[in-house]
Write a structure and sequence with these properties.
Layout (H helix, E strand, L loop, with lengths): L2 H12 L4 H21 L2 E4 L3 E8 L2 E4 L6 E4 L2 E8 L1 H8 L1
Antiparallel strand pairs: 1-2, 2-5, 3-4
Length: 92
Amino acid sequence: MNQNAIVEKVMADAKISNKASAARALKSVVSSIVEALKSDGKITISGLGTFKVKETKARKGRNPKTGEAIDIPASKRVSFKAASGLKKIIKG
């Protein structure tokens, strides 16, 4: 499913009359999640799961093409843990 398909689904489910309004609603939800991750580092959406910012340590790696050793700097990444209800739905 892509963004346009989600906008169409939001339009139908929320009875929004035009695509632009549904797209703005989706954009607002996504930007709210991003802002929460920036400020708090964690957001839980009931029934869906938890998004969390995790820090990775600096480590050594290898360039797969040349085999040369490289330093991979410490960074941050976003992880997602699905809610138990979502896991049950997916498993069927």
